[in-house]
Amino acid sequence: GGDHTITYPILQAVAEKHGPVGLVHVDAHTDTGDRALGEEIYHGTPFRRCVEEGLLDCSRVLQVGLRGSSYDPDPYKYCREQGFRVVPAEECWRKSLVPLMAEVRQQMGNKPVYISFDIDGLDPAYAMGTGTPEIAGLTPAQALEIIRGCKGLNIVGCDLVEVAPMYDVSGNTALLGANLLFEMLCVLPGVKTV
């Protein structure tokens, strides 16, 4: 739970211990905005702040599932300028993400990696309980492929954000979020699974 603002102080603490980290970021939005309503810190700005503070190894940042409305004609320009690997949702439609994650494992190497998963990376057909839903997102199976594709990486932390149960009376979003967090725990270094 919590909005994506929580990732910023977490990455400050992680970088204090490990230095700049790689990032696997699943989201409908880049969260690299500069300001909103005059504020520099809100749920649409955490990764810009992280770049500015040198918390991320930008050559090892993956953003996957991006889509939706934007205030900018080129919403991924900032990310690409930083060296992020940007994978819009439409590049994921109707296919397995196992090959992508094999490439990502090579990109991340054995250096520290953080996983940040915004539930709105998934299509609202599966996860409507979020504050900023965007149509045409990832499927739960693709979410599992991404998370399970991180197994073997030097994962130093993870989060799952933006679950808003009050927007989904069925409880499916909370169930999906809990299962994705469980999957993240299973890919942490040293965790043995059957």
UniProtKB/TrEMBL annotation:
One of its GO terms (molecular function) is metal ion binding. InterPro entries: Ureohydrolase (IPR006035), Ureohydrolase_dom_sf (IPR023696). GO terms for biological process: putrescine biosynthetic process from arginine, via agmatine. The gene is Agmat. The keyword Hydrolase applies. Keywords: Hydrolase, Metal-binding. Transmembrane segments: none annotated. SUPFAM superfamilies: Arginase/deacetylase. It holds the Pfam family Arginase. Belongs to the arginase family. It comes from the Eukaryota. This is SPEB protein.
